[in-house]
Amino acid sequence: MNEVSQQILGRLSSASGFLSGAALSREFGMTRSAVWKHIMMLRRGGYGIEALSGRGYRLSSMTGTPSGPEVARFLNTSAFAREMVWEEELVSTNTTARVLAGKGAAEGLVVSADRQTGGRGRLGRSWESAPGVNIHCSLVLRPRVPLQRIPQLTLLVAVAIHKAIASLLPDLSAAIKWPNDIYSDGRKLAGVLCEMESEADCAHFVVVGIGINVNQESFPPHLSQSATSLLLASGRIASRPQLLAEIFNHFEPLYHEWCEVDDLAFVLDYLERHAWLKDREVEVSRLHGKIAGRVSGLSALGELRVVESDGTVHLIGSGEATLKQ
Amino acid sequence: MNLNEIKQLIDLVNSSDLQETIIEEGEFKITLRRSLPHEAVAVACAPASPAPAVPQVAAPAAAAETVVTAQASGLTDVCSPIVGTFYQASSPDTAPFVSVGDSVKKGDILCIIEAMKLMNEIEAEISGTVAEVLVENGQPIEYDQPLFRIKP
């Protein structure tokens, strides 16, 4: 499905009834037979489009893919995800988003793919990605705040994902594992990986990568104890475009508040209330050896507070905290 | 510890033979390290508790001192813009972005500083040769800490 097909889909999706072939051919500057070819392409892509002679075309069913026209139906943002690049397959949405951001893409652009062939986690760890059931997307941001604050974005995104999941599946018990993962029943549901390109004192752009296991029915044996999906955890199929839209509906106001106020207080309560590591014994790898202790909460800057058995307090701002075996 | 006390501390360390001083007071920690004879440079100033006033006051002083150091030796320091962990390669299985002796162009990626799963690629701001790598892979990094020395 090419870009023009998606634009025609978007036009059909926003129309209340039938749109005539003549109107579409005028609007898109193409012949009526060219419009028909795009309609056929959309039908092959799974969209239900009625065609009535004398009346034109009407969209009767969507496919449930997290692409621009489908996500837009659920959006109430001003900029986030208003422009979307949708591909059936990408090596990594972060990589594509970084290329587009480097060419000047505006804040709010989202790259979404049905399948990732080379999804990355932290430090090149691979992220298993099944086709047609999950969410892989990346958002371009251009925050004008001091660089030292920008890592806090990860926490805001985690809050937005958690809120979006709660709005679709209120009975599902999910928690935020500091700083970037969403867990349910001790298994990973979703992850965030942000990448920044910056100069000494300003960020050119930040790409926020989000991966969510939505309707995946099973995982390979080596992952079944550590990964889960919304479907496995709740027993319900979730709408991917709606979930994607809800994430950005929640994230956009959080982001704007954070840009204006140099203070994380407005999300700290939420992060503490839904913290998966709170009061647990964890280990944090350090260059030489490990820090082991109990998580007592978060600092005002969003760092993880780990208290050793002798009372020494560590504030962890980077690296990984894992449950003590 | 307030700004005046930190200034006094720097003077005290400057007038001594100490190469490095680490002072911890409750949840506050400061490290003073001498990079050239008789010139103490505050390279690290980590608030262990919500005390943003102290690092904000101390950081510009550290930056200024670092520039002086670099000019004196004819090398340019590449400093970290954020607090985080230093990674010399994009993944544990790949070769470091740069090593000592490599020539780099302005804009080349030198390393990644990670904080809260945000990967910040640090680029060379000048072209030159990597004269020194000042930190180890996986090392925690403070704000404005020198990471590399580049010979223009």
From TrEMBL, chain A:
One of the Pfam families matching this protein, by short name: BPL_LplA_LipB
DNA-binding region (UniProt annotation): 21-40
The keyword DNA-binding appears for this protein: yes
GO biological process, one term: regulation of DNA-templated transcription
Catalysed conversion reaction: biotin + L-lysyl-[protein] + ATP = N(6)-biotinyl-L-lysyl-[protein] + AMP + diphosphate + H(+)
Superkingdom of origin: Bacteria
EC number from the UniProt entry: 6.3.4.15
Binding sites annotated in the UniProt record for biotin: S92, T93, N94, Q116, R120, G121, R122, K188
Residue ranges of domain BPL/LPL catalytic in the record: 66-259
Record-linked InterPro entries: aa-tRNA-synth_II/BPL/LPL (IPR045864), Bifunct_BirA (IPR030855), Biotin_CoA_COase_ligase (IPR004408), BPL_LPL_catalytic (IPR004143), HTH_11 (IPR013196), WH-like_DNA-bd_sf (IPR036388), WH_DNA-bd_sf (IPR036390)
GO molecular function: ATP binding; biotin--[biotin carboxyl-carrier protein] ligase activity; DNA binding
Record-level GO cellular component terms: cytoplasm
Enzyme's top EC category: ligase
Key word Nucleotide-binding present: yes
Role summary: Acts both as a biotin--[acetyl-CoA-carboxylase] ligase and a repressor.
Similarity comment: Belongs to the biotin--protein ligase family.
Protein name, as recorded: Bifunctional ligase/repressor BirA
Organism, scientific name: Chlorobium phaeovibrioides
Gene, per the UniProt record: birA
TrEMBL record, chain B:
Limits of the HTH merR-type domain: 1-12
Annotated pathway: Lipid metabolism; fatty acid biosynthesis
PROSITE patterns hit by this protein: BIOTIN, BIOTINYL_LIPOYL, HTH_MERR_2
CDD domains listed in its UniProt record: biotinyl_domain (cd06850)
Gene Ontology molecular function: any one: acetyl-CoA carboxylase activity
GO biological process: fatty acid biosynthetic process; regulation of DNA-templated transcription
Record-annotated Lipoyl-binding domain positions: 67-151
Superkingdom assignment: Bacteria
Entry keyword Plastid: no
A single GO cellular-component term on record: acetyl-CoA carboxylase complex
UniProt keyword annotations, A-Z: Biotin, Fatty acid biosynthesis, Fatty acid metabolism, Lipid biosynthesis, Lipid metabolism
Matches recorded under Pfam families: Biotin_lipoyl (PF00364)
UniProt-listed InterPro entries: AcCoA_biotinCC (IPR001249), Biotin_BS (IPR001882), Biotin_Carboxyl_Carrier/Decarb (IPR050709), Biotin_lipoyl (IPR000089), MerR-type_HTH_dom (IPR000551), Single_hybrid_motif (IPR011053)
PANTHER family reported in the protein's UniProt record: OXALOACETATE DECARBOXYLASE ALPHA CHAIN
NCBIfam families hit by this protein: BCCP
Stated role: This protein is a component of the acetyl coenzyme A carboxylase complex; first, biotin carboxylase catalyzes the carboxylation of the carrier protein and then the transcarboxylase transfers the carboxyl group to form malonyl-CoA.
Protein name: Biotin carboxyl carrier protein of acetyl-CoA carboxylase
Species annotation: Chlorobium phaeovibrioides
